[in-house]
Write a structure and sequence with these properties.
D-Maltodextrin-Binding Protein, domain 2; Double Stranded RNA Binding Domain; five-stranded mixed β-sheet; globular
């Protein structure tokens, strides 16, 4: 008997399509695999290109419409950049696979190829992320931080047209699109920690769809799953449904998962740094993430985040 065909819900950007096609190819490579097709779905984040990401409500602005299509049966799977996926999934959904993590770092791309430290005084740097804005302000308080929206090729075009002196993008997305040659500097996670789950592709299915979840089982990478569980548990405890200037990166070695995290004021003036180890199991990773969040909160993270929410402003070139 032939397996039932699978339809993957995905955004239509070049990066989203690369990720969805990659998942489709991994499924097709399995013995007896079903036919796999892609269905393009527009999300709130795609439609509101002129609105800074921090002004769009909640954290599901790149995933909500796809997950609703999954829940109503329009598609069988949803492929996301895991950093875009809310820490609390829609009821009835399951994270069926976390693919092996690509480079989690952020990458600086400058107009003239200079690294961050050598950009001119008052350099105009573009980003749509509060986290990147905060750590840029910490490392280069003289920089003029400008809002930057659009897909990866569009952002590169705006840099090449002279709208910015530099922009910051995820290294993984650039690599997947074959654009790593543009990178001027890979930013050190010790001083410029990445977003939670950056570099990870997540695949969701309906929690009760055992047949589809079985096709995803072989795609799941255990160390990536554990690292993502730790980082997402940390964010879940801190964020309260809004963007937070938080960078975090977990690593797994043997039976231990290590999680490092930083919460930074938007002006870069203050930062809280924490690191801890835990058991390299999903349950241990989640406990570690929550533990580190509680430590940061006890040291004043809530006040830092509260000040951010009271007064956030960005500038568009």
């Amino acid at each position: 008997m032939n397996a039932a065909a699978l339809t993957i819900g995905t955004r239509a950007s070049a990066l989203a399509l690369w990720q969805a096609q990659h998942v489709a190819e991994l499924i097709r490579a399995q013995p007896g695999a079903p036919p796999v097709a892609l269905q393009h779905i527009s999300t709130q984040g795609d439609l509101q290109q002129q609105v800074p990401l921090w002004q769009v409500g909640g954290r599901a602005f790149f995933t909500r419409e796809i997950d609703r299509a999954l829940l109503d049966g329009s598609v069988s799977l949803a492929v996301h950049s895991l950093k875009d996926l809310p820490t609390r999934l829609e009821a009835g959904l399951a994270l069926g696979a976390t693919l092996a993590r690509a480079d989690p770092r952020d990458a600086l791309i400058s107009f003239d190829g200079k690294p961050l430290a050598r950009l001119p005084a008052g350099a105009r740097i573009g980003t749509s992320s509060l986290r990147r804005r905060a750590f840029l302000a910490r490392l280069r308080p003289d920089a003029v931080l400008l809002e930057l929206r659009g897909n990866v090729p569009t952002r590169l075009e705006r840099l090449q047209h002279g709208d910015y002196d530099a922009i910051v993008l995820a290294a993984a997305g650039l690599a997947r699109l074959g654009l790593s040659q543009h990178v001027s500097e890979y930013l050190d996670p010790e001083t410029f920690p990445p977003a939670v789950a950056q570099g990870v592709i997540g695949v969701c299915a309906r929690a009760q769809d055992a047949a589809t979840l079985e096709w995803l089982r072989g795609l799941d990478d255990a160390p990536t799953r554990i690292a993502a569980e730790a980082e997402r548990a940390l964010l879940a405890r801190l964020e309260g449904g809004c963007q937070v200037p938080l960078g975090a990166l977990a690593s797994v070695a043997g039976n231990t998962v290590t999680l490092a995290a930083q919460v930074c004021a938007l002006d870069g003036a203050r930062a809280l740094v924490a690191r801890a180890d835990g058991a390299a199991t999903p349950q241990g990773a989640r406990a570690l993430g929550t533990q580190l969040a509680e430590e940061l909160l006890a040291r004043g993270a809530a006040r830092l985040i509260g000040e951010l929410r009271a007064d956030v402003g960005v500038e568009e070139p």
